[in-house]
């Protein structure tokens, strides 16, 4: 099992459901390793100490040291092609034999091929790339480009968003856990606005299509009032999951153009097909100035992320914006190239769209009569079920969600709870229809039992 298995945002470490589950699942082999882990790792929220171990990861399955198996509907958003895809493992092994590393300033075939490939799959003239090892760094490269290109330093981003753990990324992020305990100031000029969240929006009486887009107007207003913002940085669809209202991104794109700000889309969890399009912003018919991708880019095996910018934004040639040791690592580049190949060859983008639509309609049909189900929403294979105390006020049902969560875990399904009450379901795009049905049965049964 992955360490994230029983880490849910907003969940108390001492909840009785968690205690019960841990008692039930304590394992002969897992426990000693958990103790050693807690002794040597720096403790931090949402990560260490761990509560589970992992011994195997294959396809959609993860297994702990004591042999407990779960379908992994979280996978840290890296497992688009499933765990340990044989073609990927083979390609990495072969690359290790051919060329295992490239010192900086030495270019190599896989790195160039990958940059060319990304320019090919990204729309418009998103054609120039830098690689980093993680998504946080890719976002910081994007912020540096925006500063250099505009001569401005301010940013506008969303409260509740996550863009990475680095100081720059945490500054534009809006999650309390990543900001609140860092003594001293974050980046200056990092302005935040309320994120789109139609399901909780007071103006959304008539549905997203006719709401007047108060959330987009706020971005426009702040850009106008500040007058000197370098960039808006945001996730095109929030992984909570929250889908933007129709027209939101077009309005924000226009506002950015009007006020001279660049638009940076952080596609680190959503990119490469997760939402049923290669890039999630394609649902909204816009093209950003810069897009960052990561997570699934390394195929769930190796760490690699990328900042892809419009070719005209190649303006930092005289200084270093992403001077990373593994900038052109041939092995991580090979992993990314092969991952994209697999996504294309296996038609995983269309598959995500098809299976996601199917899963959401199944959940809607089978849970429609339950008062504790608020919304079922998402795009492609990034979808979620919001658990509420009542359907009218939509008061979050955190305790109910937790019970459902542990019932699912006991039945062999692992996922994450977002914002305390949203069962967030994000399986690999390679999942079979049979396994998806099996997982949906587990979720539906658990919700019905608790309801
Ligand atoms: C939207 C988003 N941006 C950035 C990041 C940071 O990526 P990394 O953990 O690779 O630094 C994440 C990771 O969860 C993310 O979800």
Look at the structure and give the mean pLDDT.
92
* Helix proportion: 25-40%
Per CATH, the superfamily of the largest domain is Type I PLP-dependent aspartate aminotransferase-like (Major domain)
CATH architecture of the largest domain, please? 3-Layer(aba) Sandwich
| Global Rg | 22 Å
CATH class of the largest domain: Alpha Beta
Please specify the SSE layout and strand pairing.
Elements: H1 16-25, H2 30-40, E1 56-58, E2 61-63, E3 69-72, H3 86-98, H4 109-121, E4 126-132, H5 135-150, E5 154-158, H6 167-172, H7 176-179, E6 190-193, H8 214-226, E7 229-234, H9 248-259, E8 262-266, E9 290-293, E10 305-310, H10 330-345, H11 348-367, E11 373-379, E12 382-387, H12 398-410, E13 413-414, E14 416-418, E15 422-425, H13 433-450
Parallel strand pairs: 3-13, 5-6, 5-7, 7-8, 8-9
Antiparallel strand pairs: 1-2, 2-3, 4-10, 9-10, 11-12, 12-15, 14-15
The chain binds pyridoxal-5'-phosphate (PLP).
Give a written overview of the molecule.
By secondary structure, this protein is α/β, with parallel strands linked by helices. It contains 13 helices and 15 strands. It has helices at residues 16-25, 30-40, 86-98, 109-121, 135-150, 167-172, 176-179, 214-226, 248-259, 330-345, 348-367, 398-410, 433-450, and strands spanning 56-58, 61-63, 69-72, 126-132, 154-158, 190-193, 229-234, 262-266, 290-293, 305-310, 373-379, 382-387, 413-414, 416-418, 422-425. The strands form 3 sheets. A 7-stranded mixed β-sheet has the order 4-10-9-8-7-5-6, sandwiched between helices. The chain has a 4-stranded mixed β-sheet with strand order 1-2-3-13. 49% of the residues are buried. Mean pLDDT is 92; it is low at 1-14. Residues 134-136, 139, 162-164, 235, 239, 266, 268-269, 294, 305 line the site of pyridoxal-5'-phosphate.
């Amino acid at each position: 099992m992955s360490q994230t298995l029983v880490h849910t945002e907003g969940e108390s470490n001492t909840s009785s459901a968690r205690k019960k589950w841990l008692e039930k699942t304590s394992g002969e082999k897992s426990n000693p390793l958990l103790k050693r882990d807690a002794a040597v790792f720096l403790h931090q929220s949402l990560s260490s100490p761990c509560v589970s171990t992992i011994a195997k990861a294959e396809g959609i399955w993860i297994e702990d040291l004591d042999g407990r198996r779960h379908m992994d509907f979280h996978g840290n958003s890296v497992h688009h092609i499933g765990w340990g895809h044989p073609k990927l493992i083979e390609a990495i092994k072969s690359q290790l034999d051919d060329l295992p590393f490239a010192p900086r300033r030495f270019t190599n075939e896989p790195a160039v091929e990958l940059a060319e490939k990304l320019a090919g799959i990204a729309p418009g003239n998103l054609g120039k790339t830098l690689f980093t090892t993680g998504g946080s760094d890719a976002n910081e490269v994007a912020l540096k480009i925006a500063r250099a290109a505009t001569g401005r330093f301010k940013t506008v981003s969303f409260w509740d968003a996550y863009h990475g753990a680095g100081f720059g990324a945490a500054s534009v992020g809006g999650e309390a856990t990543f900001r609140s305990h860092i003594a001293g100031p974050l980046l200056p000029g990092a302005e935040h606005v309320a994120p789109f969240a139609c399901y909780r929006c007071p103006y959304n009486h008539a549905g997203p299509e006719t709401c007047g887009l108060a959330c987009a107007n706020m971005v426009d207003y702040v850009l106008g009032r500040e007058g000197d913002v370098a960039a808006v940085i945001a996730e095109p669809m929030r992984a909570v999951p929250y889908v933007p209202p129709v027209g939101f991104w077009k309005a924000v794109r226009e506002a950015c153009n009007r006020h001279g700000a660049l638009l940076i889309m952080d596609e680190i969890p959503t990119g490469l097909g997760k939402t049923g399009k290669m890039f999630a912003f394609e649902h909204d018919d816009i093209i950003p100035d810069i897009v960052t991708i990561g997570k699934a880019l390394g195929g769930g095996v190796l760490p690699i992320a990328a900042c892809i910018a419009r070719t005209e934004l190649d303006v930092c040639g005289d200084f270093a914006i992403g001077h990373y040791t593994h900038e052109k690592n041939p092995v991580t580049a090979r992993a990314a190239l092969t991952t994209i190949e697999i996504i294309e060859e296996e038609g995983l983008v269309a598959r995500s769209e098809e299976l996601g639509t199917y899963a959401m309609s199944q959940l809607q049909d089978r849970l429609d009569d339950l008062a504790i189900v608020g919304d079922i929403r998402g795009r492609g294979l990034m979808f979620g079920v919001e658990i509420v105390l009542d359907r009218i006020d939509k008061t979050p049902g955190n305790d109910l969600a937790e019970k459902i969560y542990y019932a699912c875990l006991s039945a062999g399904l692992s996922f994450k709870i977002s914002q305390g009450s949203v069962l967030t379901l994000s399986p690999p795009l390679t999942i079979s229809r049979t396994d998806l049905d099996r997982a949906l049965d587990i979720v539906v049964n658990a919700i019905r039992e608790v309801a």
